[in-house]
Input
Amino acid sequence: MAQDLGGPAAGAFGAGGSVASQVPPTIPAILTQPGDPAPVLDLDPAKTDRAPVTTAEPEAPAIGPTGRPTPEFPVPPPLTGHGPARVISMCNQKGGVGKTTTTINLGAALAEYGRKVLLVDFDPQGSLSVGLGLNPHEMDFTVYNLLMERDVALEEVVVPSGFPGMDLLPSNIDLSAAEVQLVHEVAREQTLQRVLAPAIEHYDVILIDCQPSLGLLTVNALTASDGVIVPLECEYFALRGVALLKTTIDKVQERLNPRLVVDGVLGTMFDGRTLHGREVMQRLVEAWGDQVFHTVIRRTVKFSDSTVAGEPITSYASGSTGADAYRQLAREVAARCLDA
Ligand SMILES: Nc1ncnc2c1ncn2[C@@H]1O[C@H](COP(=O)(O)OP(=O)(O)O)[C@@H](O)[C@H]1O
Ligand SMILES: [Mg+2]
Output
């Protein structure tokens, strides 16, 4: 049978040209009036000034790293005044997923867009405070004093972050004692909410950097928040434990804070060159759907370098892709949950 390929069947198309070229061009009846002279279609492009007809669709948004078309996020409009703030916790009980990095850099990018930002270091490891160049042993007051001592006021604890438009409530290891001491307090889950209340009217955004656990400090952060951002490292085991985190968020929402919502799930340390990275991203979108931010933070050493320098990446390496990624996240967060 193989030898028959050059036989009559192949000749039917080969000799006569394509099937399309044998069909005479016609004009749809809707474009003609009764009595019109029979139209002559001249398809020579040189004889017409009309744009050549193409079959291309109107330009669609490009497919982003999450496998979905990425919309354009506009620059947030300028504000005429500040407050009330949206309170957002960075939460994941796994360590090293980018909570602190996201708190600093999302905060700095929002401040660049004119939002007044307060960062709350709510991890006894104090990485956020150190990441902004503070010495953990040289703090007069920390979040611990604010939580546990009724005569310490918020303005005594807030320090400038060193970056315009962004302040910090610092922490150090003292905060680990609060987790134990709070157990005996009345309304122990609402303590952070109570002490943050005077700050709400002064800021546009308050970002809380949670510790890597789902203990009482994290429950306090969720109770004080309007939204949660869940940073997830784009590697296989990242999805383990996420169900427990979701249950915790749901319980706080049901029992302590009905306004709490998930503002978004953020893929961090993404490496789009590996099949593995792309597969994890696909599974993230399958599990969380539209809650996954279109913005994805790629893996780059610039983040560790900027932590060592005690600066946000938006100032340490202002033109880097990492800085731009956090600026895009700031625009996406603004569009999704600040200005909406
Ligand atoms: N996108 C990234 N690419 C490379 N390294 C990163 C990235 N994000 C964070 N890191 C680094 O990973 C480490 C853990 O990040 P961190 O933000 O401290 O996580 P967490 O607060 O969840 O424990 C830090 O050394 C940080 O500099
Ligand atoms: Mg951290």
